[in-house]
Amino acid sequence: MGHYIYKLLMQVNYLINKVQTSFSFNFKVIEYFFNYFKVLNPFIAILRFITLFWAYFLLFYDQVCSIDVKMQPSILIVEDEKIVREGLARALSHEFKIYQASNGNEAMKIIYKHSDITVIVSDLKMPEIDGFELLEKIRDENKNIKVIFLTAFYSIESAVDAMRKGAFDYICKPVNLKKLESTIKNAIQI
């Protein structure tokens, strides 16, 4: 819509150029300012200034709005199985900006590097640093990041332990993508 208003304002500016010949005001004091707009008539110059200002404002406003619309929440997927990690990334990339890590150490490097991460989707059992150790490190560094655990080894004890340690949710594999997406959105909103 802003593009159409911009075109309209540019047409108004063109009409002002045509009409300016019918006015004959000439003020020497403000002549320098109005020469910038190629007009000696103050009324026409002011109208042209307002028109151009508004047109540029609308162009800038459209750019800012389009940026806001494209901004996506960032999530980090930490999964040692490459096929699962890339599949989740592909499935969630239409809604979220995705970072990927294959283990807890790599995840911590990404967290330090990118402060925009709001949710981490992590496997529970991984080499080097497991999901619980990763959660503890995240809690030490940034308490605002929500952690959602995925696991193929579901047990009530590990689910309770994960929630007690501060995990946002605990989801069993194979992952229901709609449930995961919904859980991520809930984590972002809280």
Short description:
The chain contains 8 helices and 5 strands; from the N terminus they run H-H-H-E-H-E-H-E-H-E-H-E-H. With 190 residues, it is an alpha/beta fold.
Q: What report would you give on this structure?
A:
Helices cover 57% and strands 14% of the residues. By secondary structure, it is an alpha/beta fold. The chain has a five-stranded parallel β-sheet with strand order 2-1-3-4-5, sandwiched between helices.
Biggest sheet, spatial arrangement of strands = 2-1-3-4-5
Low-confidence stretches: 21-33
Largest sheet: 5 strands, parallel
Which second-level CATH architecture of the largest domain applies?
3-Layer(aba) Sandwich
Number of domains: 2
* Secondary structure: helix percent: 55-70%
Number of helices: 8
N-to-C SSE series? HHHEHEHEHEHEH
Proportion of β residues? 5-15%
Regarding CATH, which class of the largest domain?
A: Alpha Beta
Give the radius of gyration. Answer: 28 Å
CATH superfamily of the largest domain: Response regulator
| Quantity of strands, as a count | 5
Shape: elongated
> On the 0-100 scale, what is the average pLDDT?
76
**Which structural class is indicated by helix and strand composition?**
alpha/beta
Q: Find the CATH topology of the largest domain.
A: Rossmann fold
Q: End-to-end span in angstroms?
A: 33 Å
